[in-house]
């Protein structure tokens, strides 16, 4: 496992952002783990998240011209990612986000920050049904730009309505690359390698869940 991935799993477990037990998801599935991105709710946590996004972006090798964060959750994510890319990775790129409602005074328009143009890399927390990504694609195309990739914090690697995961479906539909800081396999590998009986006690439940709902 790459260092930034291991550090990320370490951090989210210590901060209880990643929790283990039994959780009912929106899909109705009973999950043995839950990732609550809303708990990146302090300056230090958000700064760590930005550094993690920046490391994942660097490792992905995706070529892009501008970072885009879909409102509202994507706004702080794209902000800290852009800062961390510049400070930690030496990649200084413009960034922007959209408004939910058009502004009819001042500079007006739907996009705030840099011009939404060229090759766009979208920053989001997690992908569930893909609705937010599809809406972002509409905004990007309307601006005459091209979505080339998406970066999320966690890929649950779960089947959608068919044999593919939502992320795999998005990759095929939009011909883009979706990368994550960590995925379910990373979490399971971490638990298997941990010298911790408490963490180890969740391995079987997560393995069973992956067998039932997971995709490669």
Secondary structure topology:
Elements (H helix, E strand, L loop, with lengths): L2 H12 L3 E7 L5 E6 L7 H18 L5 E4 L4 H15 L6 E9 L5 E5 L5 E5 L7 H12 L3 E10 L10 H9 L2 E7 H10 L3 H4 L2 H11 L3
Structure description:
The protein is α/β, with parallel strands linked by helices and 216 residues long. Helices cover 42% and strands 25% of the residues. The protein is built from eight helices and eight strands. The strands form two sheets. It has a six-stranded mixed beta sheet, sandwiched between helices. β7 (146-155), α5 and β8 (177-183) form a beta-alpha-beta unit. α2 (43-60) crosses α3 (74-88) and α6 packs antiparallel against α8 (203-213). The mean pLDDT is 91.
Strand content: 15-25%
Q: Please, what is the average pLDDT?
A: 91
Spatial strand sequence of the major β-sheet: 5-4-3-6-7-8
Name the helicity range.
40-55%
Report the radius of gyration as a whole number of Å.
18 Å
Give the low-confidence spans: none
Distance between the termini: 17 Å
């Amino acid at each position: 496992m790459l260092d930034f991935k291991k550090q990320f799993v370490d951090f989210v477990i210590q901060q209880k952002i990643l929790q283990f037990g039994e959780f009912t998801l929106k899909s109705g599935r009973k999950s043995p783990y839950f990732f609550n991105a809303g708990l990146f709710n302090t300056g230090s946590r958000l700064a760590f998240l930005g550094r993690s996004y920046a490391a994942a972006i660097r490792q992905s090798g995706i070529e892009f011209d501008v970072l885009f964060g879909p409102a509202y959750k994507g706004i702080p994510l794209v902000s800290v990612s852009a800062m961390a890319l510049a400070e930690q990775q030496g990649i200084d790129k413009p960034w922007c986000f959209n408004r939910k409602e058009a502004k009819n005074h001042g500079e007006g328009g739907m996009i705030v920050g840099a011009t939404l143009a060229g090759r766009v890399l979208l920053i989001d927390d997690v992908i569930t049904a893909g609705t937010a990504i599809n809406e972002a694609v509409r905004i990007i195309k309307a601006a005459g730009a091209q979505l080339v990739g998406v970066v999320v914090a966690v890929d649950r690697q779960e089947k959608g309505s068919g044999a593919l995961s939502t992320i795999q479906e998005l990759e095929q539909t939009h011909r883009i690359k979706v990368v994550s800081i960590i995925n379910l396999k990373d979490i399971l590998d971490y638990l298997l390698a941990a010298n911790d009986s408490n963490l180890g006690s969740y391995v079987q439940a997560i393995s069973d869940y992956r067998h039932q709902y997971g995709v490669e």
